[in-house]
Amino acid sequence: MNVLWIFAHPEPRSLGGSLRDEGVRALREQGANVRESDLYAMKWKPVVDTDDFGSAAGSDRLIVGATSKDAFTSGELSEDIRAEHEKLAWADAVIIQFPLWWYGMPAILKGWFDRVFVKGFAYGVQRPDGKTARYGEGKLAGKRAMVLLTAGAPEATIGPRGVNGEINDLLFPLQHGTLWYAGMSVLPPLTIHGADRVSPGQYDVAVEALRDRLRTLATSDPIPFRSQNGGDYDEDLVLRDHLAPGRSGIGVHTS
């Protein structure tokens, strides 16, 4: 496999940095080809602005979606964005690794998605029949993605009845609204809890759990999100009444 490892932590000597090193080593031992985007080391620019779009930005009011598509189509996106597109085109699978900060990803990683997942590349893609290719379809379809998360909270607090909420609910905007939206098959996340209090023994357990997940990166079943154009949603993109009857919320979007 070709694996792109996206790492968003400011300290390479952190637990996250050590897990990244262990994971990359494990993949290479398996024979995988690995490339990395270490966002802090790259000093990745996290904000969208006219510099991203070259002459496509023009002098009129910036409309990000339309302008980004024009720049993508004409090859005028900034060099750093085009480099990430090349990595994504090369990759069969993507690992997205970050610490959970305020129920979400660090700003630098959010900025990576904001700048890299432009219109025409990750969204705004049309099928031959005129329907929009998203939620299971699109240019990134056929690729796999997995979130590797470190969280300071104890495991019991990140669950169906834990005060912090269930992890797949917390990750729904990323896993469903970004990765699956762009067509990627999303594997269940791996969360390392109590990140600030990991003992040597717990670290060994975490490393082995990571190695286990990476061994099955190509074969494990993804989260069974419903595809937009597979018949489960009506013409208004609302889940049909006979599916998950009497239920609502995030959970109804998995089959």
Entry summary:
By secondary structure, the protein is α/β, with parallel strands linked by helices. The chain has two domains: 222 residues, Rossmann fold, CATH 3.40.50; 25 residues, no CATH class.
Structure description:
With 255 residues, the chain is an alpha/beta fold. It has 2 domains: 2-223, Flavodoxin domain (Rossmann fold); 230-254, no CATH class. The chain has 8 helices and 6 strands, in the order βαβαααβαβααββα. It has helices at 15-29, 39-42, 64-74, 79-90, 107-116, 167-170, 172-180, 200-215, and strands at residues 2-7, 33-38, 93-99, 144-150, 185-186, 190-192. Strands 1, 2, 3, 4, 5 and 6 form a 6-stranded parallel sheet that branches. Strand 1 (2-7), helix 1 (15-29) and strand 2 form a beta-alpha-beta unit. The model has no long low-confidence stretch (mean pLDDT 96). Pfam families: Flavodoxin_2. It comes from Amycolatopsis regifaucium.
Number of contiguous helices: 8
- What is the average of the pLDDT values? 96
- How many strands in all? 6
Q: What percent strand?
A: 5-15%
What kind of sheet is the major sheet?
Answer: 6 strands, parallel
What is the CATH topology descriptor of the largest domain? Rossmann fold
Distance between the termini: 28 Å
**Order of secondary-structure elements:** EHEHHHEHEHHEEH
Q: How many domains?
A: 2
Judging from the principal axes of the Cα atoms, what is the shape? globular
According to CATH, what is the class of the largest domain? Alpha Beta
Which CATH-level-2 architecture of the largest domain? 3-Layer(aba) Sandwich
Structural class: alpha/beta
CATH superfamily of the largest domain: Flavodoxin domain
